[in-house]
Design a protein that fits this description.
By secondary structure, the protein is an all-alpha fold. The chain contains five helices and two strands. Strand 1 and strand 2 form a beta hairpin. The longest helix is centred in the middle third of the chain and has 44 residues. The chain is elongated.
Length: 173
């Protein structure tokens, strides 16, 4: 997918993971802190995480198309400027997928246990499994938020430094 109505798709699609993945991460933190809210908000958080991860995948694909257009038009000098952003975008996509898988486990395993307990012999999820799932999903949340921020920052910096020459474009800041 290269464009929407003549506008490059990548700058539009990046808003899905940039907004929804941190929102899902906040939902995870809330569900870990207040386990009673796990039942109430789990499906909403899972849906938000899914759309955010899907947005990360689509944004990365659109970014690859946009990168090809930019490098073909401007040559190898432009390619060097976009490499950091492309690498950060790939990392963000990977973390978004991992986060969604762990989030799905965090939501679905307790749900299956609850359904099984309601229909047959009651069985609670062992405490160590609950703690492991919570630790994994919190780590995935943190990693996803950090990589999405880094990808967004490098992309914004690439665009800004391409059109302007502020003092921090030469350095790593």
């Amino acid at each position: 997918m290269r464009s929407f109505f003549g506008i490059p798709a990548h700058p539009l699609l990046v808003h899905l993971p940039a907004v929804l993945l941190p929102l899902a991460a906040i939902g995870v933190v809330v569900m870990v802190i207040r386990p009673a809210w796990h039942r109430r908000y789990r499906w909403a958080v899972l849906a938000i995480g899914f759309v955010g991860a899907l947005g990360a995948i689509l944004a990365a694909q659109a970014g690859e198309s946009l990168e090809e257009q930019i490098t073909a038009k401007e040559g190898s000098a432009a390619a060097a400027g976009w490499e950091d952003h492309a690498a950060a975008g790939e990392t963000a996509r990977l973390f978004a997928i991992i986060f969604f898988v762990v989030l799905a486990l965090f939501i679905l395993i307790p749900w299956f246990i609850e359904r099984r307990a309601a229909s047959a012999t009651p069985q609670a999820l062992p405490k160590w499994v609950t703690l492991l799932l919570a630790a994994l999903v919190l780590a995935g949340s943190a990693g996803t938020v950090v990589t999405v921020i880094l990808a967004g920052h490098s992309g914004a910096k690439s665009v800004w430094c391409e059109t302007n020459t502020p003092p921090n474009c030469d350095s790593g800041g």
